[in-house]
Amino acid sequence: MQIVLGVFEQGIIYAIMAMGVYITYRILDFPDLTVDGSFPLGGAVGVSMITAGMSPVLALPAAFAAGAVAGMLTGIIHVKFKIRNLIASIIMMTALYTVNLRITGRANVPIFTYDTIFRNAFVEKYLPGALAPFATLIIIAAVALVLKLAIDWYLKTKSGYLLRAVGSNQTLVTTLAKDKGTVIIIGLSIANGLVATAGCVMTQWQGVFDITLGTGTVVIGLASVIVGTSLFRRFRFVKPTTAVIVGSILYRAAVALAILYGLAASDMKLITAALLFVILVMGMERTKKVKSDA
């Protein structure tokens, strides 16, 4: 039961991050490595506020705002200074390592003795007894659901439609007298805001901030997006955000099974890389098959 709960808890936390990666990877077609810096940025903002005596709940919107600023700066570097998207994101990712250290003051900050969104008087009062073992999962699912509904709503707005258009048809955005650069910056801001929020939730879930928290985050996000969107490709009624959440949970389940059947936890990065490789190859083969059938 603990393993299953752990898979769902981690899977849904990473799903929040993966929704941000979905915006950059699928919608904007932007290889954004800022994710590896904005994920721990959310954690750094969260632990700094918590250790300062502030509400752990308020740490979530603060983390989103910090991530949005990081994404906006990546967009500005790319759009205004005409630096290639991948290089722009690498510049920002590198800069955020130092920024995160500056925010926290050190590379490792434990918060086991502080209130978090998972350990506080409200949770103890309203999620007692039989619900206690599932309290953490309920809270994570609630946060993810709110963000998912917000993204689903946004993508149906005029700004959301422009965001979807800029990744596939930038000429259309220009003909509508809209600045495609501004749309890209907005998309990167929203995406990295989601990633930073996930980092804040993950840090509170673990009870400790570590500067290496974001290492390989973008790979996990890509794997979750590819698994989810590939799995529900034929089911048009399933929203992409829902597919990404399911993909993230399935990905975490695959990692948990690999560890359960003999691989060490230290091998997780290798497992992640191998799974992503297999997923990409399978996706390419499926695409080739569809084209040959057509």
How many beta-strand runs?
2
SSE order, as H and E?
HHHHEHHHHHEHHH
The chain-level mean pLDDT equals 90
Roughly how much helix do the residues carry, as a percent range? over 70%
Structural class: mainly alpha
Distance between the ends: 45 Å
Number of domains: 1
Overall radius of gyration? 19 Å
The biggest beta sheet, please? 2 strands, antiparallel
Short key terms for the protein model shown above:
single chain, globular, two-stranded antiparallel sheet, mainly alpha, 73% helix, 294 residues
How would you briefly describe this protein structure?
This protein is mainly α and 294 residues long. It contains 12 helices and 2 strands.
Report on the architecture of this protein.
The chain is mainly alpha-helical. It has one domain (2-215). It has 12 helices and 2 strands, in the order H-H-H-H-E-H-H-H-H-H-E-H-H-H. The chain has helices at 2-27, 35-51, 59-79, 85-104, 121-126, 135-154, 158-168, 170-175, 180-206, 217-231, 240-260, 268-293, and strands at residues 108-110, 208-210. It has a two-stranded antiparallel ribbon. Helix 3 runs antiparallel to helix 4 and helix 3 packs antiparallel against helix 9. The longest helix is centred in the middle third of the chain and has 27 residues, at 180-206. The mean pLDDT is 90.
